[in-house]
């Protein structure tokens, strides 16, 4: 949420719709382990209803990824809005 509310994020937060999640657990996470997270936009595409982007989050223990989530989010375009096909640079990753 912090990334999508940052001033440099190219899509306004209001009006976005969460479409689906894909979560993969690479191995169990133990209660004594400290997790580090990384989150970034990994894909954008124009669809019939607007623009979809995938927000990928990795949970790591040291350098080992133990959990990955891909959240697909839709920015609906309605009224006179049309997808431009232009892609803005993604915001910097949060670590």
Describe the structure.
Helix content is 4%, strand content 49%. The chain has a four-stranded antiparallel sheet with strand order 1-4-3-2, with no helix packed on it. A hairpin with a 2-residue loop joins strand 3 (50-61) and strand 4. The protein is mainly beta and 95 residues long. The chain has one helix spanning 2-5, and strands at 16-25, 36-47, 50-61, 64-76. It has one helix and four strands; from the N terminus they run αββββ.
Instruction: Please summarize the sheet with the most strands.
Output: 4 strands, antiparallel
| Rounded mean pLDDT score | 86
Listing every helix as H and every strand as E from the N terminus to the C terminus, the arrangement reads HEEEE
> Count of helices?
1
Compact description:
The protein is mainly β and 95 residues long. Helices cover 4% and strands 49% of the residues.
SSE topology sketch:
Elements: H1 2-5, E1 16-25, E2 36-47, E3 50-61, E4 64-76
Antiparallel strand pairs: 1-4, 2-3, 3-4
Provide keyphrases for this structure.
mainly beta, four-stranded antiparallel β-sheet, 4 strands, elongated
């Amino acid at each position: 949420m912090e990334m999508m509310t940052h001033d440099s994020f190219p899509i306004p937060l209001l009006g976005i719709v969460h479409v689906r999640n894909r979560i993969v657990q690479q191995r169990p996470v133990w209660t004594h382990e400290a997790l580090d997270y990384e989150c970034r936009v990994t894909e954008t595409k124009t669809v019939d209803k607007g623009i979809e982007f995938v927000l990928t989050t990795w949970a790591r223990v040291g350098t080992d990824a133990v959990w990955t989530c891909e959240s697909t989010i839709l920015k609906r375009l309605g009224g006179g809005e049309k997808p431009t096909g232009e892609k803005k640079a993604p915001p910097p990753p949060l670590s």
